[in-house]
Write a structure and sequence with these properties.
2 copies of one chain form a homodimer. In chain A, 26% of the residues are buried. Chain A has one domain: 2-Layer Sandwich (Mth169, Chain: A). By secondary structure, chain A is α+β, with helices and mostly antiparallel strands. Chain A has helices at 16-27, 51-66; strands at 2-9, 33-46, 72-79. The first copy, chain A, has 2 helices and 3 strands; from the N terminus they run βαβαβ. The first copy, chain A, is elongated. The interface between A and B is medium-sized, with 32 and 31 residues.
Chain lengths: 80, 80
């Protein structure tokens, strides 16, 4: 099975990378956008008996390594 | 409207960050996973008349700034 994980900063946590991207988009002449936030994205293949088991395993990986749960949220999607 | 963008390395491009994460997962005792790849994730609010216009605008942002199309793919999702 394939797991896709999005890790994003929690609301209220400052995002200097996002601000820098907004500055660059502005320099390039883009308009009509706001609230740019940068996060991380992971993909991995996982062996598990079923989707629930895969989800639980990946949740454990997120809690222990992939996300800093003090300032970040994570979202897991398991595909076929 | 809200745009969500995933930027991932193309197949065949080496991913040292992914390899490092695999090493760390291994040290933590995880098993049964493979092919860890790290990418980037962006969220932004965008003003546009319709989803197609928003998609076109964000595609332009990806081509010019958010993704390095020589080595990266991007995937855009427009919500609400």
């Amino acid at each position: 099975m394939k797991a896709m994980i999005k890790v994003t900063l929690k609301n209220g946590v400052l995002d200097p990378q996002g601000k820098a991207i907004m500055g660059s988009l502005n320099s390039l002449g883009f308009e009509g956008y706001d609230n740019v936030r940068q996060g991380k994205y992971f993909e991995l293949d996982i062996d598990a008996d079923n989707k629930a088991a895969a989800q639980a395993k990946v949740k454990d990986m997120c809690e222990k390594l992939l996300a800093n749960t003090v300032i970040e949220n994570y979202e897991i999607e398991i595909a076929g």
